[in-house]
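Request: Could I get any protein with tokenized structure?
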Amino acid sequence: MALMITTACTNCEACEPVCPNQAISRGDPYYVIDALRCTECVGAEAEPQCMLVCADNCIVKHPDFVESRDELQAKYEALHV
């Protein structure tokens, strides 16, 4: 399952540099996560790094992108060929 940033985002910029897949970018009016690039850090880290650094707790699981751990791993490997 990919992650998403809610409207509670305050644009603190903490999440963007910790994403191993470059899935996070500045949006309008708040940061966004590209669900096609988000692997919840599977393949790179033990847990989602963006969630760890988000002081506003505004990063949640994206309800429209349900993926297994194996699917997330395959996505990570395809992104880092």
In short: The CA atoms of residues 40 and 76 lie 9 Å apart. The mean pLDDT is 97.
